[in-house]
From TrEMBL:
<dbReference type="GO" id="GO:0005743">
    <property type="term" value="C:mitochondrial inner membrane"/>
</dbReference>
<dbReference type="GO" id="GO:1902600">
    <property type="term" value="P:proton transmembrane transport"/>
</dbReference>
<dbReference type="Pfam" id="PF10173">
    <property type="entry name" value="Mit_KHE1"/>
</dbReference>
<keyword id="KW-0472">Membrane</keyword>
<keyword id="KW-0812">Transmembrane</keyword>
<protein>
    <submittedName>
        <fullName>Uncharacterized protein C23H3.12c</fullName>
    </submittedName>
</protein>
<keyword id="KW-1133">Transmembrane helix</keyword>
<feature type="transmembrane region" description="Helical">
    <location>
        <begin position="121"/>
        <end position="139"/>
    </location>
</feature>
<dbReference type="InterPro" id="IPR018786">
    <property type="entry name" value="Mit_KHE1"/>
</dbReference>
<dbReference type="GO" id="GO:0006813">
    <property type="term" value="P:potassium ion transport"/>
</dbReference>
Length: 329
């Protein structure tokens, strides 16, 4: 097992776990079988309900926090035949290992109780979701979704706990990778406040998937996959990149609105930040997209007008600090 820390912007990066450990648990094998069945829906006819279900389900899964996907990819202690003595985190030299270590510890401290809490919520809602089975000829989507979230939180929790054990016992080592330096040296990454979107007056989420100056772009991600020979890296980095850019775009819109209205932007109630999570995991994807506050999203916009530089400058002072992960779709 080896980990990678790949920068998306100058002070924003994503982790990726590449593990070749065999799946030994019955639960893991069952989930792998379910994933194959799920992917078969993509081969259905374009206008069929199976294809539409696959597209909608894939969109929901892509809205889940990229950090959750990272922890899910870390094998649990039960899946490892013998304890791992050393796990290496490879990173380009532009990332400081002290900063990486501090950020990883803080991330583990925040995510473990989060996944533990929402794993329980998902379990509580499973019996209620079972009642939807009384409707004939209709797939029980609420039950399927709650079971998926239950397993997702469980897998992320076990991966985070295993990683925390490795960190606590000093089994994590950081090492620069010349192959990453070869790629990153040709990219001039910028801070969030320096990022320029194609048309700030009309935010286009589709445009975020295209190349942007100062960002790790799709062509760079494909090159990383080829050099590192890690096929799964492309999906995870693309997801992390899109979520990070969405959060920056949304906050830039808040700044623009606040420049117009000194009393603060009028945010629609559907996407207004909330200090407390919803009680139902049925709303979990929307919570993750709109209202999720973690250690890296503690940004307060004052009621007085602030410039883009004021907002983003205060954020970039902390390690791997970020903006709220809001989604506009």
């Amino acid at each position: 097992m080896r980990l990678y820390a790949i920068p998306i912007l100058k002070n924003r990066w994503a982790y990726y776990c590449h593990s070749t450990l065999p799946a030994t648990s019955r639960l893991t094998r069952m989930v792998a079988w379910s994933n194959k069945k799920w992917e078969q829906l993509d081969k259905a006819e374009t206008d069929s309900w199976k294809k539409k279900l696959y597209v909608r389900g894939s969109n929901i899964m892509n809205q889940l926090d990229y950090q959750e996907w990272f922890f899910k990819s870390v094998p649990s202690k039960e899946e490892v035949e013998k304890p791992l003595e050393k796990v290496w985190i490879y990173h380009p030299s532009l990332l400081d290992k002290t900063e990486l270590d501090h950020e990883l510890k803080a991330l583990l401290k925040e995510r473990i109780p989060y996944h533990k809490k929402y794993m329980r919520y998902s379990a509580y809602w499973v019996p209620l979701a079972c009642t939807f089975a009384i409707v004939p000829l209709v797939p029980n989507l609420p039950l399927a979704y709650n079971l998926f979230r239950l397993y997702s939180h469980y897998k992320a929790l076990k991966g985070a706990e295993h990683l925390k054990t490795l960190v606590d016992y000093g089994n994590i080592e950081y090492e620069t990778d010349p192959r990453l330096d070869e790629i990153m040296d040709g990219i001039s990454l910028v801070d969030p406040h320096e990022l320029i979107f194609p048309d700030a007056s009309k935010p286009d989420l589709v445009g975020l998937e295209q190349d942007l100056e100062g960002v790790l772009n799709p062509k760079d991600i494909r090159r990383l996959v080829e050099i590192l020979d890690v096929p799964g890296l492309e999906i995870e980095l693309s997801r992390a990149r899109l979520q990070i850019l969405k959060s920056i775009l949304y906050c830039s819109e808040l700044c623009r609105m606040q420049d117009v209205n000194h009393h603060g932007p009028k945010i629609p109630s559907a996407i207004k930040p909330s200090s407390s999570p919803p009680s139902s995991p049925l709303l979990d994807p929307f919570y993750s997209s709109f209202n999720h506050h973690d250690r890296r999203t503690s940004v307060t916009i004052s009621k007085s007008s602030r410039s883009h530089q004021d907002l983003f400058g205060s954020i970039s002072s902390s390690s791997q600090s970020s903006l709220p992960r809001y989604s506009l779709n």
